[in-house]
Amino acid sequence: MKINIGCGKMPEEGFTNCDHVKYDGVDKVFDLRKKWPFKDEEIDEVRARQILEHFAPGDDLLKLLDEVWRVLKPGAILEAWVPKYPQSDYVFLPDHLSFWTETFVWALATDYQTRGNQKWEIELVEQFDHPEPNNVDVHFKLRKVVK
Question: 12-16 — which CB contacts under 8 Å span 24+ positions?
């Protein structure tokens, strides 16, 4: 099973679409800040498009990553897009609580390992340029590695 977290009004075909609001196309409604309604190591892929920046760095973001880690099968992927600081005008929206750069992704993936047995292998970290001006993302893929 592949899940698309924080999909809002943009569900993706081929994914179980998840959000905290029951918009059209949302398959599961739950709070990403709490335990997710999936079993341990049940998920093949977690897609997070324009959602991670809504979590404050520190406990909020780390709790979300803990849930991603818990539900992903060994070797499965977290793929995400977040507004890139400072190139994207979207980083300054009032509900965006964390600022993302390629360096932040590398640090997050590396430092996260010190919290326990959790380990991410970085598959991809790149800048993604949207067609409209002043809209740049960091696009990344992290693979769950079991020691």
Answer: 12/47, 12/49, 15/45, 15/47
Q: Per-residue pLDDT tens for 95-108?
A: 888 888 888 888 87
Which distant-in-sequence residues (6+ apart) come within 8 Å of 72 by Cβ? 41, 43, 44, 45, 46, 78, 144
| Arithmetic mean of pLDDT over the chain | 88
pLDDT at 112: 62
Residue type, 36: W
Asked whether the beta carbons of 17 and 27 are under 8 A apart, the reply is yes
| Number of domains into which the chain is organized | 1
pTM (2 decimals)?
0.89
Range of the domain at 132: 2-145
Give the integer Cα–Cα distance in Å for 68 and 143: 11
Report the pLDDT value the prediction gives residue 116, as an integer from 0 to 100. Answer: 61
- Quickly tell me which residue has 């943009």 as its tokens: 10
CATH number at residue 19: 3.40.50.150
CB 72 within 8 A of CB 80: no
Strand, helix or coil for residue 30: coil
Q: What percent of the chain has pLDDT over 70?
A: 94
